[in-house]
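step=encode ok
step=design start
structure_in=
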C-alpha cells in the first residue's frame, strides 16, 4: 500500500478543504405565495410565509 513520503503542508491541506465548502452552497426554491427565491425549510424573507401560513409581518419599503 502506498504511503506518503512527506507530510502535506498546512497550506496545501487548507486549500484542498476550502474547495469542498464551495460545493455545498444552499439550494434556493421559489415561494408559492410571492414567487421570490428563498432557502427551503425557512420563512420567506420577502412575504413572511412558511408552509402556507403567515409567520412574520414584513414591512415593504421603510
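sequence_out=
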Amino acid at each position: 500500500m502506498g504511503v506518503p513520503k512527506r507530510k502535506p503542508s498546512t497550506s496545501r491541506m487548507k486549500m484542498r478543504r476550502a474547495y469542498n465548502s464551495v460545493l455545498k452552497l444552499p439550494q434556493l426554491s421559489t415561494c408559492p405565495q410571492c414567487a421570490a427565491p428563498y432557502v427551503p425549510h425557512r420563512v420567506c424573507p420577502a412575504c413572511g410565509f412558511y408552509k402556507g401560513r403567515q409567520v412574520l409581518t414584513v414591512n415593504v419599503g421603510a
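step=design ok
step=annotate ok -> The chain has a mean pLDDT of 88.
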